[in-house]
Write a structure and sequence with these properties.
The complex is a heterodimer of chains A (82) and B (243). In chain A, 34% of the residues lie in helices and 29% in strands. Chain A is of the alpha+beta class. Chain A has a 3-stranded mixed beta sheet with strand order 1-2-3. Classes of the chains: A alpha+beta (82), B alpha/beta (243). Strand 4 of chain A pairs parallel with strand 13 of chain B.
């Protein structure tokens, strides 16, 4: 059986290198037959693609997509730098 | 001296599915800032289609837009085509060089480029050993040297450095320590500290924190969109509290 660390690394590599995602810095955790994706992406479609690419890279695991879409709120107060 | 209001953001990672959404957040920008700075990773995969989308999203704004590219924008080896597309749409793109802009009577010099990695003093790679390691570190060193030269040549009221990679580790807090060498290099800070600047902006570290400073006391702001959580950060530079 492949060690969970190698599965997680394989998924992380797929998310970075797959042309559909090219996403770095996403946390991938494997626990038993469960795989968790955590972090931020910039759009809903991208969020779904991340799940698809992860699932393809680890078809034997149940993927939990806990990625959040970055909220672009209104700018707040100026910071004064004197 | 006239105060200067700066809007800055990085890592907007625009793709077709979010076309127009970011631009909608730029309404009223001219009332809040004199210049908009973009700290790289404007695209997701660095394709020309995404480069065009970035150009369209930031074109014809009522204030000058100054940008640098990030590692994502280099991913398809089309960085120069993307820069050209953006410049054709009136966006100033820095590539280890400088621009001088006059804002409400104040002269602002911006020096910048992508930057690169290597790590931070005491825990960094050196130009030693294999060709690949030497190439990695010498790339950063050559960038830092270009910034230092460009800063020296500036004679402006304010000097700002715009980077994608971080010059300090303070603004990386929240990122795993193991990847710090891929997030920035102290060589960038050292170059800026040698000449002096008012402020340094960078992006790249999505899980980092907003505020830090160089060993020489220059303030550093990580303006990566996931760190800010708002369309852009607003920073006011002045000698007196007059903004």
């Amino acid at each position: 059986m492949e060690a969970p660390q190698y599965v997680a690394a394989r998924v992380q590599r797929a998310l970075a290198e797959d042309d559909r995602t090219s996403e770095l810095g996403i946390r991938v955790d494997v626990r038993g037959d469960q795989l968790f994706l955590r972090g931020h992406v910039t759009g809903e479609e991208h969020r779904r693609l991340m799940e698809r690419v992860a699932q393809e890279a680890a078809p034997e695991l149940h993927v939990h997509n806990e990625l959040q879409v970055v909220q672009v709120r209104e700018p707040g107060e100026d910071e004064h730098l004197d | 001296m006239t105060e200067l209001r700066i809007a800055a953001v990085g890592d907007v990672h625009l793709g077709e599915d979010v076309r127009g959404q970011y631009r909608a957040r730029l309404t009223g920008l001219e009332g809040r800032a004199d210049v908009l700075l973009l700290a790289g990773d404007l695209t997701r995969h660095g394709t020309l289609a995404e480069g065009r989308l970035v150009a369209e999203e930031f074109r014809d704004l009522p204030i000058p837009v100054v940008a640098v590219l990030g590692n994502h924008d280099y991913h398809s080896d089309l960085q120069y085509e993307i820069m050209s597309e953006m410049r054709d749409h009136g966006i100033i793109v820095l590539d280890d060089d400088a621009v001088v802009i006059t804002c409400r009577g104040a002269r602002l010099g911006v020096v910048g480029g992508k930057g690169f990695g290597g790590g931070f003093a005491g825990k960094c790679a050196s130009e030693f050993g294999e060709r690949e390691i030497k190439g990695f570190v010498s790339h950063t060193r050559s960038i830092a040297d270009s910034w230092q030269r460009a800063l020296k040549e500036l004679d402006t009221d304010y000097k700002i450095v715009l980077s994608h990679y971080s010059p300090v580790k303070e603004t990386l807090e929240g990122e795993p320590l193991e990847i710090y060498p891929f997030l920035g290099s102290y060589l960038l800070a050292e170059a800026v500290d040698t000449v002096g600047a008012d402020l340094i902006f960078h992006g790249h570290a999505h899980k980092g924190s907003e505020k830090g400073m160089t060993p020489g006391g220059i303030r550093v702001r990580n303006v990566a969109l996931p760190v800010l959580g708002r369309a852009y950060g607003l920073y006011c530079l002045s000698e007196h509290d007059s903004c």
